[in-house]
Design goal:
Elements lengths: L19 E5 L3 H12 L3 E5 L5 H19 L10 E3 L3 H5 L4 E4 L5 H14 L5 E4 L6 H4 L10 E6 L8 E6 L5 H13 L3 E4 L9 H17 L5 H28 L4 H9 L17 H15 L4 H25 L5
Parallel strand pairs: 1-2, 1-4, 2-3, 4-5, 5-6, 7-8
Antiparallel strand pairs: 6-7
Helix pairs in contact: 1-2, 8-9, 8-11, 9-10
Length: 331
């Protein structure tokens, strides 16, 4: 991330002490954030000037609250802790953090952020759920405290998927990025704190690579759509739910782990297994991949990791079988 502009030091609430969140934009993503904050036992103040927005959010909370109960509620969690502000300024004056989830329109976001910057107390971090815009591009018209604007991109639905990508813009302070990551972690999110801005962030770029390759295969009559989804749902997807792609490959290297896999299969990077061109496997890239996997193992041996993977796979497979059998699903 580029070095931010020098900004005055602002004292703000500790991330773990946040008890009142503001939600601006209450559609699919904003409403899901409201549900998650409510499940975490927080007060939620929502604002959306759209027609029927308030009633739509109330309907969404009512419909999904049983799922929140099944997932597990923190002490004090209640849908009754949701309230609505009659203006954006009223919201900014009574919350301790703001999660923005308005439509993906760069011009509109720039205007919104400039207004938020001028009316929101300096100690309030403003987080955007944008799925692709760089914060550098969104904060250009923020003239007061651009250092507290951060991207916090969730995976849908945010009330259920426990993952967020956090990254700042050119004017964002490292402190605000760290604060946002700590805030999300305090409300049961797994956080990827990115070192640099990147279009699409992490997850969407990985999904897009898979999606484009799928389109190529169908366009070239190489396989069916059904077979593509089978390969994910019954193959790699089961493993990804447990360890992710890199650590899965670490186990694929046997007792030698990622180091052995890269040394043994490096020539395969030149094979036409995808339409994407592989980067050069430099010693630096090799070492970064190996060390990254070792960091994730936390000292566990390959045999211990294999046992963990297999135990989890059995539970996932059995759960899927039970669910499909009880609902009459054949596949």
């Amino acid at each position: 991330m580029d070095k931010p502009m020098e900004q005055p030091i602002v004292s703000r609430l500790e991330p773990t002490q946040v008890s009142r969140a503001g939600v601006i934009g209450t559609g699919t993503i904003g409403g899901a954030w409201a549900l998650h904050f409510l499940r975490m036992g927080m007060d939620v103040v929502a604002y959306d000037p759209g027609p029927d927005a308030q009633q739509n959010l109330l309907n969404m909370v009512e419909a999904i609250w049983p799922t929140m109960k099944e997932l597990g509620l923190r002490e004090g969690a209640s849908p009754q802790r949701l309230s609505f502000a009659n203006s954006m300024e009223a919201l900014t004056q009574c919350v301790q953090v703001i999660q923005e989830s308005t439509p993906e329109n760069l011009t509109a976001k720039r205007k919104l952020f400039a207004e938020l910057d001028s009316i929101t107390p300096a100690d309030v971090v403003i987080i955007s759920s944008t799925s692709g815009f760089a914060m550098t591009d969104m904060q250009v018209d923020c003239l007061h405290h651009p250092e507290r604007f951060v991207v916090g991109h969730p995976f849908n639905p945010p009330y259920l998927i426990p993952f967020c990508e956090v990254v700042g813009g050119k004017q964002t302070s490292p402190e605000a990025v760290d604060w946002t990551a700590a805030f999300y972690e305090s409300i049961e999110k797994q956080v990827a704190k990115m070192d640099k801005e990147l279009p699409g962030f992490i997850g969407n770029r990985l999904q897009e690579a898979l999606w484009r390759e799928a389109l190529h295969m169908v366009a070239n009559n190489e396989c069916s759509v059904e077979d593509i989804d089978k390969s994910i749902a019954y193959g790699m997807g089961l493993r990804w739910a447990i360890m992710g792609h890199c650590l899965t490959y670490h186990l694929g290297g046997g007792q030698g782990g990622m180091a052995h896999l890269l040394d043994h299969f490096a020539p395969a990077l030149k094979e036409p297994w995808t339409r994407l061109e592989a980067p050069e496997l430099t010693p630096e890239l090799r070492d970064a991949m190996v060390q990254g996997c070792l960091n994730q193992t936390e000292g566990r041996s390959i045999n211990e990791l294999v046992k963990e993977r297999d135990d989890c796979l059995i539970r996932i497979i059995n759960t899927l079988k039970e669910y499909k059998a009880s609902h009459g699903i054949q596949r």
